[in-house]
Specification:
Radius of gyration: 19 Å
Helix content: 25-40%
Strand content: 15-25%
Structural class: alpha/beta
CATH architecture: Alpha-Beta Barrel
Shape: globular
Number of helices: 10
Distance between the termini: 56 Å
CATH class: Alpha Beta
CATH superfamily: Aldolase class I
């Protein structure tokens, strides 16, 4: 076997003991989770905004972003619920490149998963404890969910993972909304099958145990665009795409039909400045079709302190080192605009 053993990593309970959740923070998470669930089950007419960096890379600018977002939440509380993207794992198409804070808590140094696990736990804990903000992360590695299970208020399953059996089954055991992205090739039946699997109970092997789940009625769709056989990015947020998804949900007879529109990735062709226009076009469709309006629960936006992206080592504070993001000023304007339009 060519895999070299480096060291034993700490288990979830050990990491949770190092960075425990206070009683006040736990109570805040309960309240956040209830408010988010009411959007996805239709009890609330608010929209959810899953917004934040493509991938978190350094604690100081991420915490500054969280502080700004918390202040902005107060201004739009009657219309929107802001959930901060704190994405600590970065899927890589070819396997190369920065893989997120879990792998490299310091992007300029070698991978260090031991300290990476501690770093991502500390960051999620501080955002909840210090600013009261609900956080979202991508479930790239299902076995790692337990490290953050008492902190996360939203989980996304990415386009490259949505067909994976373990992702689907673990999602069925979560008590927070789980968004299933359409796969990179665009086949919506794969996404719908994933939602169906997550909304059923299962018994399976997880880590070193036999476990059973009670099903997740808040599993739902995320449309993120797709790539055709020629490698071209194509969107799936237009009116026809939205009404088609309404019809798929009607046929599937799933609980709590819901959609989050990812305004970046293939929907924007990674042209981050298009995200505000895409969100507003979707809201325009909502105003013209009641079924679409009921289905669309919110948006996913990649946003950071500075516009665009940079290479590792350039050192621009609050600028993405992975995919380009919308800067703070444009992000704030987008959130205020959406609040006016909802």
């Amino acid at each position: 076997m060519s895999m070299e053993f480096l060291r034993q990593l700490p288990g979830p309970e050990e990491v949770k003991e190092k960075y425990p959740v206070s009683a006040a923070a736990a109570a805040k998470k309960v309240a956040n989770d209830r408010a988010i669930a009411e959007i996805f089950n239709g009890k609330s007419n608010k929209k959810v905004m899953l917004i934040g960096p493509c991938s978190v890379d350094s604690e100081p600018p991420v915490l500054e972003y969280a502080e700004r977002l918390a202040r902005l939440q107060e201004r739009v509380a009657d219309k929107l619920l802001l959930v901060m993207r704190v994405y600590t794992n970065k899927p890589r198409t070819t396997g190369d490149g920065y893989k997120g804070m879990l792998h490299q808590p310091d992007p300029g140094k070698k991978p260090d998963l031991y300290n990476g696990l501690l770093s991502i736990r500390e960051l999620h804990t501080r955002i909840l404890s210090d600013y009261g903000m609900p956080t979202a992360d991508e479930m790239l590695y299902p076995a790692n969910y337990l490290y953050l299970s008492d902190l996360l208020s939203y989980v996304a399953v990415g386009a490259r993972s949505v067909e994976n059996q373990e992702h689907r089954l673990v999602a069925s055991g979560m008590d927070v909304p789980v968004g299933m992205k359409n796969p990179t090739g665009g086949d919506l039946s794969i996404m719908m099958n994933s939602i169906t699997a997550a909304q059923h109970h299962h018994t399976f092997q997880y880590r070193s145990a036999e476990v059973s789940t009670t099903a997740n009625p808040l599993a739902h769709a995320i449309l993120r665009g797709y790539v055709n056989r020629h490698g071209q990015s194509l969107p799936n947020y237009h009116y026809e795409d939205l009404t088609y998804l309404v019809s798929l949900y009607e046929k599937a007879a799933l609980q709590n039909p819901a959609l989050v529109v990812d305004a970046n990735h293939a929907n924007s062709g990674k042209k981050y400045a298009e995200q505000p226009r895409i969100c507003k076009e979707v809201l325009h469709a909502c105003r013209h079709n009641e079924a679409v309006s009921h289905l669309v629960k919110g948006f996913m936006v990649e946003s950071y302190l500075e516009d665009g992206c940079q290479k590792i080592g350039e050192g621009i504070y609050g600028k993405s080192i992975t995919d380009p993001c919308l800067g703070w000023e444009k992000s704030e304007n987008l959130i205020l605009d959406i609040a006016d339009l909802v």
